[in-house]
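Risk register update: the risk of archive-format incompatibility is retired. Evidence:
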Amino acid sequence: MTPNPPDRATNPNWRDQPNWPTRRTVLEYTSVTATLATLALLGGSVAAQDGDEVGADDTDEADGETATDDGPAYSHWLPDDDPRELEFVAVDWATLDEYASDELEEAQPDDEVPPEYEADPMIAPVSEGALSAYLFVGFDLAQFGIGRLLDDDEMFDSSVSTLLQTPDTYVVLGEIDPAEIDERLTAEPAAEFISQLERTDEIDGYEVYTPVEDTAGTAIAVGDDALVVVDDEAVDALAVLESTIGAAGGTADRAVDGSESFAWALETAGGGDVVVGQLGAPAESAAAADDADPLVDFAYPALEGAETIVSSLTIEDEETSTGSFAAVIDDPDETELAGVLGASGTDQSVDVDENRVTATATWHEEDVAVAREP
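Archived output:
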């Protein structure tokens, strides 16, 4: 479901124009929690999970990545640029592909969202993160001519297995056809809002493209297993690409190696179909100081002071989904946590071991039906 962008003169800050809907606007319009509380229950077959945790010398066939240590494969693309702060969203697109577009199209702005889902840290952050990652392709990548990468098999030979979003980068993992991506990135713009790129560099086997009309903070790296996109004028795009690609290849530090608590949380709750995580206090980051919305919102009183949080949802069968949660919290209140973690589901379990908190819950399709006008 990709929108048709309005016509306008080329502008390096085209997403800031008043007639262009922001991701935040779309999240609100589509009633994100209503849409993606049911994302966990979209049904259909469950993709194999052996790519989520890859051991030494194993190969993740879905994205062509060879892992050198344990941990979710997507975590290898999270560099240790700032050991104090990190936010991410990881989506197993191979599992959700058949169902996400239908759910988005069916969402209505007047959907009545049960308050228990909005108040559940195991549902709302994962839901918002999944939709943000999906919309990034349709909105942000549209300016480079590849906005329909997810939803048009006839236009692209490349296939997508995993989406990974952080405040600085967007990584598309899968079987990528570099030649077709090159053709689209470097083509003469077919619309005024599209930016033309040119190949200007190379990083560890990935061809790097930057705008023909110099735009600070924008660069795309293209390989046969991934696209890595940086589009933020506040960062050094090439430096971000180097650290991200280096982390994936094992030549740069990874976030999972720099934090014992983050590694534990990923191992405990990071293997779902949709995973969101937070390390440190992103609310105090430079992005937040500029009044930017957090990528992952765990602003719940029960989670205040958390050192790290990871939460995920996994589709089990056509009618059932499970959630896993792990956090390291200074002086956690078990009673307060039990009142919110997985409280909107069934088979709820919350365990507190000193400062480590884990939770699981199950959701059934009939329990999360969204009320709509006939």
